[in-house]
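[retry 2/3] UPF0102 protein STHAL_17565: previous attempt timed out, resubmitting with same input.
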Amino acid sequence: MNARGALGRYGEDLAARLLTEAGMAVLERNWRCRAGEIDIVARDGGAVVICEVKTRRSAAFEHPMQAVTPVKADRLRRLAEIWLARHGGAPPGGVRIDLVGVLLPRRGAPVTEHARGVA
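[retry 2/3] UPF0102 protein STHAL_17565: success.
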C-alpha cells in the first residue's frame, strides 16, 4: 500500500470509530462494484447510511468537507442505489448519504467532522 492509500485507510478507520461511537453499526467497508466504491455502509437506527470519507493532511489546499462536488454526490447516489438493489432494497428508515472529514494536523490529534445528509 502506498502512502496515499495508508492515509485513506487511517482516515476510514477513524471515521468507522466515530460512526460506531455515535451509535451506528458499520455494515461494510470499501464496498466495490463497477460504478465505484463506497467507503463505509452503516446502519443508523432504521436507516442505511452511505458514508464518504475524505482525509487530508492539511487544510491549506482544500478542507475535507469541501471535497464532495455535485459530480461526486451524483456518483454516491448511484452507488447507494446499486448497493440497495443488491441488498434487498431500501429499509423502512430510508437512506442517507453522510460525509466524514478527517484532518490530520502536523501536531496534535486528528480532527474528525461528521456531516449528515450531504447528498
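[retry 2/3] UPF0102 protein STHAL_17565: The longest strand covers residues 47-56.
[retry 2/3] clearing retry counter.
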